[in-house]
Specification:
Number of helices: 4
Helix content: 10-25%
Structural class: alpha+beta
Oligomer: single chain
Largest sheet: 8 strands, antiparallel
Strand order of the largest sheet: 3-6-7-8-12-11-10-9
Distance between the termini: 55 Å
Strand content: 25-35%
Length: about 270
């Protein structure tokens, strides 16, 4: 059935359901769980005694409860809806600086000034990308912190795995640099399944190019991976900061210069 919520002029919130016949699904498909929002007008609930503004304010909350949580950067004021996203510059990019505390997208919640905190990061992103919600159940793992997507350019992911998954010396996890862990071609296979969703061999056959970049005292490994993926990674204060971008062939042809600029702009803020 399809549920409809109607707000009358008096501010009364009504709900009704309409049952629409659906064609039977093929046995090759598995029905996904459905979320039903059932709002009823009843005594003591939303009624004539409740201001219409309170009823209308429930709209965004209902939308969020059924997964409509993506926020677009497109538009003159849309960037203000994503915490940490800056103003549009003359090149058509916005600076995204990961805010302290829980992210708007629902990513890792340890970025704070308290115990277990880690410094935020930043990167430039073209206007028009959409921030997607993430959770501990994200396909890339519980260390997934941020996702952005663009139908025209591709998908962006930031994961923050702990350094201790890559090194054995517990006393060095907070101070070790990425070049002390492993050289570029040896380290990429360790986090590629999480950051790119694919396995990478240490022989470098899947790597089209890589660079070692120094920025504000930190070493970054930047990769271009077959078929059309980009990765930037560094370590700082016990975390491996990894930003990855995946694009289709058509997206890569249209936007590879802009995608490379995103990778080049990625850096940890606290080290600046």
């Amino acid at each position: 059935g399809v549920w409809l919520a109607v707000v009358c002029a008096s501010g009364l919130l009504l709900a009704c359901s309409i049952r629409v016949p659906r064609p039977a699904l093929s046995s090759a498909f598995v029905s996904a769980p459905r979320c039903r929002v059932n709002v009823q007008a009843k005594a003591g609930g939303v009624g004539e005694g409740v201001p219409r503004r309170s009823v209308m304010a429930a709209g965004p909350l209902l939308a969020g409860s059924i997964g409509l949580s993506a926020v677009s950067t497109r538009g003159a004021n849309a960037g203000q809806l994503v915490p940490g996203l800056g103003e549009l510059d003359e090149e058509g990019f916005r600076l995204y600086k990961r805010p302290y505390g829980a992210s708007a997208s629902g990513g890792m919640r340890a970025i704070s000034q308290g115990k277990g905190s880690f410094p935020p990061y930043q990167f430039k992103i073209p206007d028009g990308w959409t921030q997607k919600a993430v959770s501990v159940a994200d396909p890339a793992g519980p260390e997934t912190d941020t996702r952005f997507t663009s139908a025209e350019m591709g998908d962006l992911l930031v994961v923050l795995p702990p350094v201790f998954t890559f090194v054995d010396d517990e006393d060095a996890v907070d101070t070790v640099t990425i070049d002390q862990i492993a050289p570029p071609l040896k380290l990429l296979p360790a986090f590629a399944p999480q950051a790119l969703g694919i396995g990478i061999e240490e022989d470098g056959e899947d790597v089209l190019d890589y660079q070692i970049v120094k920025k504000n005292g930190l070493t970054y490994y930047n990769y271009e991976v077959k078929p059309h993926s980009l990765v930037s990674a560094t370590t700082y204060k016990g975390r491996v900061y990894v930003l990855s971008i995946k694009a289709s062939q058509s997206q890569w042809g249209r936007a590879k210069k802009k995608l490379k600029k995103i990778i080049e702009s990625f850096e940890v803020v606290d080290s600046m």
